Amino acid sequence: xxxxxxxxxxxxxxxxxxxxxxxxxxxxxxxxxxxxxxxxxxxxxxxxxxxxxxxxxxxxxxxxxxxxxxxxxxxxxxxxxxxxxxxxxxxxxxxxxxxxxxxxxxxxxxxxxxxxxxxxxxxxxxxxxxxxxxxxxxxxxxxxxxxxxxxxxxxxxxxxxxxxxxxxxxxxxxxxxxxxxxxxxxxxxxxxxxxxxxxxxxxxxxxxxxxxxxxxxxxxxx
Length: 222
Known about the structure:
- This protein is of the alpha/beta class.
- The protein has helices at 24-37, 60-66, 91-94, 108-111, 118-124, 143-157, 176-180, 183-193, and strands spanning 13-17, 42-47, 69-72, 99-104, 127-133, 163-166, 197-203, 212-214.
- The chain has one domain (13-214): P-loop containing nucleotide triphosphate hydrolases (Rossmann fold, 3-Layer(aba) Sandwich), CATH 3.40.50.300.
- Helix content is 30%, strand content 19%.
- The protein has an 8-stranded parallel beta sheet with strand order 3-2-4-1-5-6-7-8, with helices on both faces.
């Protein structure tokens, strides 16, 4: 995947979407920072209108220090959650000189927010949309459940997924073995959906050579 050295920097727009608690926000932040580390101009958009408490904007200081432009809802990091998007979000599809990373809401309702950008994304046809799955979360405990959520999201936003990321974890209690045990379920989801498994991720200190290491985003109150 992008954290590996070769051959992944081919799509201008990359979207991370998955059910609540899948870890998509953390992956979006890691991905944006990795793109920027390669010297690319990057914008990260927090389009999650479902969860006001854990957002990409939580890492805005780290992102902006690295040179990543952050686009977020005006009330992110507060208890106010309005189903509206900032006008600056349209720069993601209008300014093709920058790489765009989008963190999309955690279910089909959240995916509706993406719908207004879909015609532009399809017209440009230079995107990847990754389904982030955590088999330790309710409603995605097996491949069949995860596939149902995947199809709901696709139907809501009108955009097809291009790959799957196995981001299964138990938070701070996660060990490498927990992730390894989900690989067969991830492969089954790939077979059911017809999509490739593009990465299996793990916190940096427990990642095996076969996993993509990520740094966990800190919440404002931690």
